[in-house]
């Protein structure tokens, strides 16, 4: 669309709070809050593993059929302008936020405060907030958005302060699990354009914002890394007409494909195509790529560009100790390399620190069984069935018909155990190729469970329970053997995850199974009127787990206060770009 039809920048509609925002809660009861604070997602819960795997497969197989981006061509195609009263701008970036309440609200509370003092720096509240993807877990259901995302942010900033901050959001892979339906309802609206105390500005699942001093913020939606749709490319073609060789661009993308390309070389292709065909012809410089998706803070640097991952908005911690020290972007062995010059990047900073991240991994033994009781119960059930099958063969007597049924499927139980362990090492829904290390580690893991079952069977047969009249042996096994062997088996899984993680296998499961809520992070940007961009990476070592009603009843104050004050710090010294 040409500038003759639409002004080059569109003002952001003012936020109008609803009834829930203006009525402050009198207690922490969900009926008073208007939402239910949720516990962290138990990522290894059996039903959740199955449903998440199915959702991922459906998103991969049918994503093109559910893709609503083609329909967004009928939406507004405005660009927006964000400038503060002094001609500069404060801007926040947060990603991966909609998990457990304590971590999500701890970060939201800091974002909403009028000012933060961090390592001697006085940082006022940002006038613009960018959510960088995965605003909700585990799925994009509207109820999950309410309880895990919108509700906590409503409690943090119930109504808009006088500065009327604005919110823009990039969809991540979890936002895409329903084809983007709930995301569009929350962040792309034609009326009631507010999200808690932030006004919502965008008219599509992607956006372009003009910032002070010819800086530009472009938010991309690449549908879980698949491709950039034609209406989106057309939209950014129009945006590119406003860029000049003096323009400096910040790209907010759903995933740090520069890191993922280290193992999957084609991961960066969509971003490379966008920069090469949309930005580069204008002469503008892409000075910064920023993303969430990996739940930590990491910065790669080169003379012309910074690559920052900051997915610390509330989801479980992802490790940093296995990050590559150097990256080639785009990788040399891809088709994109023939069109774009490869740049080398050095890992300049990470949070949590490498040693601390490695120590977190050892916590799997204590956290796995208690963070994921359903997974432990599943292990206990499978091992009980496997033991009864082995005992039926080892005892070598006939017994009743019902009792003989447990000795029939022994071979099947062994096959199921080995195959389950092999597929756990590389689930079909995960990306990338299956290598020899996946098979070796997976089968070894399965054999370890078979050995555990054999030892458990020998021990069980030393006890008198198996000779009791049927069905007492099965009842005794379920009541006595199942809980104990489930706990022991969970430690076998924990040991496997710790070992496999050192080989780059099941790294996500090693940390998802722990659900670590601490070590959160977000970014606060300052763009000065002269064009200097300063990035403050704010880290929060410990989130709050105890909350109280705020005695300050002013409309804009947060509903809940941490009983122990939060103490943010800088993950590294401020980064300055000019």
Automatic annotation (TrEMBL):
Residues 1-31 are annotated as: Disordered. Keywords: Membrane, Transmembrane, Transmembrane helix. InterPro entries: Metallo-depent_PP-like (IPR029052). Residues 16-29 have a biased composition (Basic and acidic residues). SUPFAM superfamilies: Metallo-dependent phosphatases. This is Metallophosphoesterase. It comes from Micromonospora fulviviridis. The chain crosses the membrane at residues 43-66, 375-394, 406-426, 438-461, 473-499.
